[in-house]
Amino acid sequence: MEEQFWNRRFFILITGASRGFGRTLAHIFSSKVSKDSQIIILGRNKEKLESVKEEIKNDNSNISVNTVNIDLAKPNAAEFQKILEPFKETNYDVYILINNVGSVGDISKDASSFNDNEELTKYYELNVNSPIVMTSVFLKLF
Ligand SMILES: NC(=O)c1ccc[n+]([C@@H]2O[C@H](COP(=O)([O-])OP(=O)(O)OC[C@H]3O[C@@H](n4cnc5c(N)ncnc54)[C@H](OP(=O)(O)O)[C@@H]3O)[C@@H](O)[C@H]2O)c1
Questions:
Q1: Is the pTM of this model over 0.90?
Q2: Which residues have CB under 8 Å from 60's CB, separation 6+?
Q3: Would 62 disulfide with which of 35, 37, 91, 120, CB 3.0-4.6 Å?
Q4: Pocket test for ligand 1, best of 19, 107, 123, 127 (most atoms within 8 A of CB)
Q5: Atom of ligand 1 nearest to the CA of 103
């Protein structure tokens, strides 16, 4: 049953995959999906994304991996669409969006110091607006 599930061509987009949970998820999926699957990993740090790409190509050399360095704290539907548009006409068996990205910033700060609205808005954009906009674009295209 499990083998049947994974033995399909997956299209997977993971936000925040240059480290942490996102990177681990990229490893787990890449080692399980069938050949000719596609994984797209997003984050700001280009070097770290490239090194995750190398790692997951080592897990499974028969899949395609694309990296996109982007600041998701500035969600922009047109920009997200540009990333996904080239895959619009594809015919994968399963399409998965993992909205992993998120941050609460410097957790050493205590609650009494959270008073900078500009900073709070940035986290709101990253944690709330960005996944909503990405989901909208993904659903429209796939
Ligand atoms: N760790 C936990 O204990 C825990 C518990 C519950 C929930 N979570 C949630 O799980 C998710 C991942 O957590 P984590 O601990 O793996 O986080 P992490 O280690 O801090 O990694 C965050 C990832 O998001 C990317 N990222 C951060 N800000 C970004 C931005 N503005 N634009 C684009 N990418 C950005 C980072 O890459 P770049 O720096 O390269 O951009 C990195 O790849 C988060 O949503 C978090 O809230 C974590």
A1: yes
A2: 30, 31, 33, 35, 37
A3: 35
A4: 19
A5: 47
